[in-house]
Automatic annotation (TrEMBL):
Family: Belongs to the CdaR family.
Organism for this UniProt entry: Caproiciproducens faecalis
PucR C-terminal helix-turn-helix domain location: 438-492
Protein name: Helix-turn-helix domain-containing protein
UniProt lineage: Bacteria, Bacillati, Bacillota, Clostridia, Eubacteriales
Database matches in InterPro entries: CdaR-like_regulators, CdaR_GGDEF, PucR_C-HTH_dom, PucR_C-HTH_sf
């Protein structure tokens, strides 16, 4: 056991002036610091004894705070020091730390057994039976699609999920679509480590961990409290088992994500632009991406990185089976084809729950447009958020003109291209505390339709007609003219870009 684990478990203040904490194999009580300490021993003594007697180098100490002391006074060369509460006595400290050492020893012995079983080529069922023996409960290994791979105690369990695994080998569609199952999946999604699920969808409390290969989820491992309550220490063992199963799946088990992994590499290559100088043979190497059939790029983007990118990638693949999906930078990239709007709709609820945004590019048909489509999907999200749009799905086609003005603004002053009526109207609103510019923008957005404009502004049609007449009189323009309306609408877009340029 390492010193930092002891400190964390005891919830004590930990100070280290040495290098990496030593592995602790034994613990002993001391009245004063020993003259010849062992690097893998932890000595427990009172802080007053340490301060009155010089400490040797490379010593591991757990000091009971019987006297006040500042941090600087404890910086001895190459010493690892844990401060224990004043309320503790020496036997109490010794017993608690010895329990931790015993727990670590027990963990390492069992971990070695499991590792040898994996390396020795035991079958999933043999490995599961060993896991069950070690954890003292029923365990299950299943694929990410809930398909049963192996479980212990085949005939001892009860609950809907137990019965469905026994009868069908996977969970029924109604179970997967239930609110309880979705809540369970959401909890698993949000956690990078195994989680305790307290009878969320069965008669048992379980600890469930994800099995992932190169950021792709391939399965689950669960232990259920069929025989005895699960504990926090079981979580550590479940995490270790998931790591071993990852090794097993990667080297000995044919899993369905091999094709997805290959697509992921090809998508990343296209986005990198072939930096290694190699070029793809379009008809062979990237044929599986179906770019020549007409594609769009969709990016799924975090607003705030509350969850891991690997979890987001895994969930996107679940919601969009069969699609080419990859991670790139801090985003998930998806290739969409003809039914792209249906695909985007599938993610609507998911992105709202997890604080995500989606950008979708225009259509392309050649591989050389791939990076451009990716950039435009990102630009759609950027411009949509800058515009203050109250949505999470952004199509580049809705923001292409804004993008045009944004690029033009880098080389030229947009003010010289604006219709002179627009800055004049904005100044009039500022001076007279009116809001004619908003009325005109909504009118232009609805292509001059009086009814839809009035509905959008929540005013009577007669009131809108009065405002339009006032605008025409004020600006000396004819709003019935289509060219004039288009010029005005483009000018408002340019003014918006100018306001948000910096």
């Amino acid at each position: 056991m390492q010193m930092h684990r002891i400190a964390k478990t005891l919830k004590a203040k930990y100070l280290s002036t040495g290098s990496f904490p030593a592995d602790i194999l034994s613990v002993q009580l001391s009245d004063i610091p020993p003259e010849t300490p062992g690097p893998q021993q932890l000595h427990i003594l009172r802080l007053s004894s340490l301060l009155s007697t010089p400490a040797p180098e490379k010593i591991n100490l757990a000091c009971i705070s019987d006297v006040p002391c500042d941090t600087e006074a404890l910086k001895f060369p190459d010493c690892n020091i844990i401060l224990l509460p004043q309320s503790w006595n020496e036997p109490e400290a010794f017993n608690k730390i010895q329990d931790l050492l015993d727990e670590d020893l027990h963990f390492m012995v069992n971990y070695t057994r499991l590792k040898e079983a994996i390396i020795g080529g035991q079958s999933p069922q043999q490995f599961v039976d060993l896991c069950s023996e070690i954890l003292g409960n029923t365990v299950i290994v299943s694929g990410k699609d809930t398909k049963l791979i192996a479980r212990s105690h085949l005939h001892d369990g009860k609950s809907i999920l137990w019965d469905e695994h026994g009868k069908y080998g996977f969970f029924s569609e109604s179970t997967v679509e239930s609110n309880q199952y979705q809540a369970m999946q959401k909890k698993l999604y949000n956690s990078p480590s195994p989680v305790i699920l307290r009878k969320m969808i069965s008669d048992y409390t379980t600890i469930t961990g994800k099995i992932e290969i190169d950021n792709f989820q391939v399965g689950y491992f669960s232990v259920m409290d069929t025989e005895k309550p699960v504990t926090k220490s079981d979580k550590r063992m479940v995490a270790a088992i998931c790591e071993l199963l990852t090794y097993y799946f990667k080297n000995n088990y044919s899993h369905e994500n091999e094709e997805a992994l290959e697509r992921n590499k090809k998508i990343q290559y296209l986005l990198e632009g072939g930096k290694d100088g190699r070029r793809f043979d379009f008809h062979t190497e990237i044929a599986c991406l179906h770019l020549d059939a007409g594609y769009r790029i969709m990016i799924v983007k975090h607003k705030s990185r509350r969850e891991s990118l690997a979890a987001l990638l895994s969930w996107t693949m679940k919601l969009m089976p069969g699609r080419a999906v990859a991670e790139y930078g801090e985003n998930v990239v998806v290739i969409l084809n003809s039914d792209y709007r249906d695909d985007a709709d599938k993610l609507d609820k998911f992105v709202s729950e997890h604080d995500l945004y989606i950008g979708i590019s225009e259509q392309a048909t050649t591989a050389d447009k791939f990076r451009e489509c990716y950039a435009r999907a990102l630009k759609a999200v950027e411009l949509g958020l800058l515009l203050g749009e109250k949505k999470r799905l952004f199509y580049y086609s809705d923001y292409a003109v804004f993008h045009l003005w944004q690029m033009l603004s880098e080389y030229s002053d947009l003010n010289q291209y604006c219709h002179p009526a627009v800055p004049r109207l904005l100044e009039y609103d500022r001076s007279h505390r009116t809001d004619f510019s908003k009325t005109l923008q909504v009118f232009l957005k609805h292509n001059g339709n009086m009814s839809s404009t009035a509905d959008s502004l929540s005013i009577h049609r007669a009131s809108l007609m009065y405002r339009i007449e006032k605008l025409q009189e004020l600006l000396k323009i004819d709003l019935n003219d289509v060219k004039t309306r288009n010029y005005l609408y483009a000018s408002f877009q340019m003014m918006w870009i100018l306001e948000h340029k910096h």
